[in-house]
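Re: the multi-chain job from yesterday

Posting the exact lines I submitted so nobody has to dig through the queue logs.
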Amino acid sequence: MDKFNLPRLLITTVAFWLIVTLLSLDSVNILNGYVLVVIERCLIFVILASSLNLVNGIIGQFSMGHMGFAAVGAYVSGTITTLWLKLPPPDPGVWISFPILIFMGAIIVGGVFAAGVGLLIGFPSLRLKGDYLAIVTLGFGEIIRTILNNIDYVGGPRGLLGIPKFSSFTIICLFALLVIVLLRNLVHCSHGRAMLSIRENELASELCGVDTTRYKVMGFVIGAFCAGIGGGLLAHLLTLAHPTQFGFMPSALVLIMVYAGGMGSITGSIVAAFTLTILSEGLRSAIDYIPVFKIGAMTIRIGTEWVMVVYAVLLILIMLYRTEGIMGMREAKLLIIEDKQ
Amino acid sequence: MGTYFSLQQIINGLQLGSIYALIALGYTMVYGIVRLINFAHGDFFMFGAYASYGAFFMFNTLLSSYIAPGNLLLVFVLIGAMAAGACVAMLSNRIAYRRLRYKSKLSTLVAAIGVSMFLEYFFSAFPAIGPSPRGFPEVLPKVMWKIGSAQVSNYVVIDLVVAAALMTGLTLLVQKTSLGRAMRAVSQDKDAAKLMGINVEGIISFTFLIGGAFAGAAGLLAGLTYPRIMPYMGIMPGLKAFISAVLGGIGNIPGAMLGAYIMGMVETTANIYNSLLGEGIAFVILIIVLLVRPTGILGEKTADKI
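And the result, structure tokens for all chains:
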């Protein structure tokens, strides 16, 4: 039995990459540019949701300011590529070039900065538990956003504009694979087992000699690092970084993915990130087909806010009728590391 | 420093504090009884503001031949806002929280986030309301008085009087009536209270009713004072009121009032220096309180907070 199951995961990802790339080739053109962007958004949400799942599901610490770390990653990498190096937008056909390598480095640097912020925030706040931690992380997320809103160098409330569109499907796919492999291996190594024991019973795991604070901070920092990578990719996909992208509601959206998918199940986060992103895009385009009503002087337009109403109802229903989420705590075979007999 | 601690500042702080106190009471009572941070409470406040907006126009057209805009109309609108807040609070308890009562605490918290999102987005999606802010009508004519160096309007007096009256009523209810005794019993030990023949679910429902009604009243007062209402107006006041409740000692009713007035004063003072500081100071206070004295100023010692 292969111990790490890594080749199968690699083959699956490469197959997924190959299918999407072939279908979106200009000569085939089954997947047009819009669909490709939706798939890229799905993959970015896979990164964000599975890294939040590390903190919320696997260590069992309720963090609500995940998008704050994504904001740090987005702004740091955006500052490097746009304001400092002034990289030109890459040619669509080029697979690899020097600016693309620099861009990947900038994403990593953004992740490192996010991890640093995570360390600063994690040390004081991870002493708290449950709902108190939720409020504190929410507060820190808001503080990060307010600070970004007031730094004129990165555009303040206008946001950081004109970021070159470096996030190609291939690069996003690569980073998503790296994050998933990182999280999967982390969960199955001894550190991961320590983290799981904190979720199950913190007192008992402390009595067994687990340094709970250290593992909580470690998981928080790794989660922040991955969130920073996701945020950087998002900024280079949308070609802008704006404070409102990283507010409370986007954080809640990622949280819904974690809960809908299943706490502690990376597979669940991946499934939920794809399902919910595609669902919201589908609803958005379905709403566009609904005509505008006119009753007397009042015009009734069905707005895209209904997508979020559907999300909210979905979240409440999942909590009421399937508290453990779609996948529960199960994982797909690909993401399980089997023991050598 | 004279300008920073003028009479005007104290009045502004008390006014803001009254609004925070009414919201914070709902947070603290619900937390005291079901140990839930009701994230949707700020949205009950928003609901109250919209309900009083609707109630004003309804009563104004229905009763305009009997009563002119004035104190009586204000009472009607206040009752409307409180009833609306109470209804939405009880409904969300009945639909979303009740089934999750004996499941994990975090799933109720996530359900509360869901309720909060639902209210915010439903209001901004609903065609007759819409996401854009709208002006709040002048329910009664504004009168300005001059006290020393400070400008005081009758709205300030209304804010302070309504908040004080409601809080006095609540204190009497909790301390003197048998219903209040039942509420205190449920907050101390649900199982023992049930064994004593108390209808626990009924008491929880009643607590949501009171909290929602107070949030609705706060919505009216906020609409009068800062005449601009929008679907997302509840998020920040809700968070700040929650922080006031933690500052005073969550689960403790006098603590919530004290914390809210401190929060109002601190925020108005910080706003003079820098508006960014005014926004962020609440979270700084929260973090300091949770790290230094997690039980809050008046809170009793419990083990499960930290």
